[in-house]
Write a structure and sequence with these properties.
By secondary structure, the protein is mainly beta. It has one domain: Jelly Rolls (Sandwich), CATH 2.60.120.1390. The strands form 2 sheets. Strands 1, 3, 6, 7 and 9 form a 5-stranded antiparallel sheet that branches. A 4-stranded antiparallel sheet has the order 2-8-4-5, with no helix packed on it. The protein is elongated.
Length: about 150
């Protein structure tokens, strides 16, 4: 049977002296964890969950939320930390947060379909509420975990 090489092993096969990036080989897996404990967010409100260092490869994302308002959704995206410039695309496409759940968040345009995402600068993970506002009282608990590899 034939052997097929990954993109990384193709680099090494072409030049055994090549050094792969930590995000490609032997890097450390880390997480960014952000939680809002009692949020009453309106449509189009932005929630700043946390920061990911420059050069990190995003490898996973999870949304974990309590029950909220019917038709309420949350999308996760990135912005450049230094000047708050929004990066085109999402980590997580708009996910329904009306029922209590934990969902795989690698559904956005930056991370779905086998794509890999690395930025050369520090980025902020932000969420945007759409569809309907989250409940005002007692609020809605939402946790976000983004897995990444670096150093």
């Amino acid at each position: 049977m034939a052997e097929v090489l990954s993109l990384q092993m193709t680099k090494v096969a072409a030049n055994p002296e090549v050094k792969l990036q930590p995000s490609e080989r032997n890097g450390r897996s880390r997480i960014m964890f952000g939680q809002v404990a009692s949020i009453a967010a309106a449509i189009a409100d932005t929630i700043y969950f946390g920061r990911i260092p420059a050069g990190a490869r995003i490898t996973g994302a999870w949304l974990n939320n309590a029950a909220g308002t019917a038709s309420s959704t949350l999308a996760l995206s990135l912005r450049k930390s230094s000047d708050k410039t929004v990066i085109s695309g999402t980590i997580t496409a708009a996910a329904a947060i009306s029922s209590a759940q934990k969902v795989d968040g690698l559904t956005g345009t930056l991370t779905n379909a086998g794509q890999s995402y690395i930025k050369p600068y520090e980025v902020d993970v932000v969420g945007t509420i759409a569809g309907a506002a989250t409940p005002a009282s007692p609020g809605q608990l939402i946790s976000v975990i983004v897995d990444y590899v670096i150093d």
